[in-house]
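[step 3/7] fold_predict: job queued, chain A
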Amino acid sequence: MWNLASQAIDEAWDVTSKTVDILDTYADETAGIRPRGLLFLLFGVKFKSNGAWDPDTNAEEVFQFVKGIFEKINKLKTGPYTNPKPTIRCLEDYATYIEHKLGTDGKQNKSDILIAQVFGHLMENGQFYPGMMYIESENFWYLPDEDDPPNGNCGASEGLLNTVAFTLRDERVAGVTLCYSFFELKTIFALGEPIANMGIAEINKFLQTGARTMLHEFVHLVSSDIVDWHAMKPPPGQNYDNRDWDQWVPVYKAAYGYTSTIYLGLTQPKNGTLNADSYAVLGFCLRYAQLDCLGTFQDQIKSSRRSLPFQVSQRAVEKIRLGEVDITNM
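[step 4/7] structure written:
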């Protein structure tokens, strides 16, 4: 198992290292790489035609924030950036699920109050958590997922998919836990180099790797600002041309994957910077130019307006369809 984890870590660092190099020369459009177009789609970073920052926006500030996340991830390898040094754990077998308050003998009394009541932890429905996870070696408690608490976060399910990995930032247990599903993912080494002109299927194939998962978790590890849970509220009058309304609040799941992260960036770019997978998508699309993420998205939006939880204004869609906006040449 550790061989697969180690391979994914190295491949994730390869992506972040190359991403920083490319972002350092964002105005250089050599080798078919289009960093400016991706920065616009995922984070709303705008440039003038000569490559300079758009003076009417906070483009440079957002760019530096995004680039800073990748730089912090790189420092995990040499620093580390976080203190204490984060740990990579395989599976969640280091933690025990406990339901009730512990007695003086260290055992739980089934007739006593819930352990979550001792700590005062309530679920969204107002009830106390049925149990908590306890790491004996660290004398540390944390809350499991509400959907499947006996199995902790690794047992939590999203539809038919089990949780692949999760990050804890508490100073006593800072690190990433890799769940059973993680070890079913392919390595980039196994896939080889991307095949050009294969569209969204090839992009998704490379995003369904251990390296992408590791990069996603590294983003959480280096920044407490990055979250995965948002709820969408439509703008007044359903006017999606208005990008200033309070569209997102931290309750429900937001954007995972290539298409959804781009839609998030187009509809509410300031929240793209708070979405972990947006960074993973940027890194892979920059590292592997053969994926042609910009051209693929432009072809997608010209052919159909997909039914997603993130909507692009019809005016923006029409401009791309009519060729008035070429996102591959920004």
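[step 5/7] annotate
The radius of gyration is 21 Å.
The chain has twelve helices and ten strands.
exit 0
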